[in-house]
Structures are given as structure tokens and as C-alpha cells.
Amino acid sequence: MNIKLFPWDHEDNKPFWVNPSNGFEWWIDRSLTDYCEKEDASSNKRPLKAVCFFVVEVDKDKRNPLTRVLVDLKSNRVLKSTKNFEEMAAYIDKLGIYLQFKNEEE
């Protein structure tokens, strides 16, 4: 059985961007990007507009994921960088709650 966990495991996928200076590939992490837009427990959509990427080092034909990077779509700023899936998901939850309360105050 051939398990395909990462976007580069699927032959029809291409990286979002390849850094010309170091060759690192940036692949969209669809599960965490979708999680940014998921409804919370109260059926409120998170006000977080972000995309999560895998940053991958390519060595010959082998890809080594270095980190996940969460990027704000409005400012293009890096919000968080970590290898850990659960840590990134917890950060997305925390940021979503913060933004929800901030928007309610305005």
C-alpha cells in the first residue's frame, strides 16, 4: 500500500512557489489552510484569512519537509513557523479566538 500524506506525493500537484536562491519548494498545506476557515464550536466562521505552507528542501529526488509556515493573506506576513501540526492548529485556534474578540470590540 502506498500512502500519500503530502501534496508532493500526488503526481498532478505542483509547488506553489520555488525559492530561486535556495531551491526550497513551498507547497500549500491544504488541511491547515482549510482549518483556518473552519467554523468554530459556536458555528462562527473564523475571521482568519491565512494560508499554511510546507517549506520543503529538495535533495536529488527526495523531499524533506523543513517547517510549516502560516502566512497572513492581507499583509503577507509570516504569523507562525513550526514543524508540528498540532502546534500550528492550536495557534490557528488561538489566533481565531483573538480576532473574533477583537472584531466584536470594534
Word description of this protein:
This protein is an alpha+beta fold. The protein has one domain (12-105). It has helices spanning 30-37, 85-105; strands at 17-18, 25-28, 50-59, 62-72, 78-82. A hairpin with a 2-residue loop joins strand 3 (50-59) and strand 4. The chain is elongated. The termini are far apart.
Largest sheet: 5 strands, antiparallel
Which oligomerization state do the chains in this entry correspond to? single chain
- Give the termini distance in whole angstroms: 52 Å
Give me the side-by-side strand order of the main sheet: 1-2-3-4-5
Number of domains: 1
* Broad structural category: alpha+beta
What does the radius of gyration come to?
A: 15 Å
What is the overall shape?
A: elongated
Low-confidence stretches: none
How many β-strands, per DSSP?
Answer: 5
Please report the number of helical segments. Answer: 2
Share of helical residues: 25-40%
| Secondary-structure element series | EEHEEEH
In what range is the share of β-strand residues?
25-35%
Mean pLDDT: 90
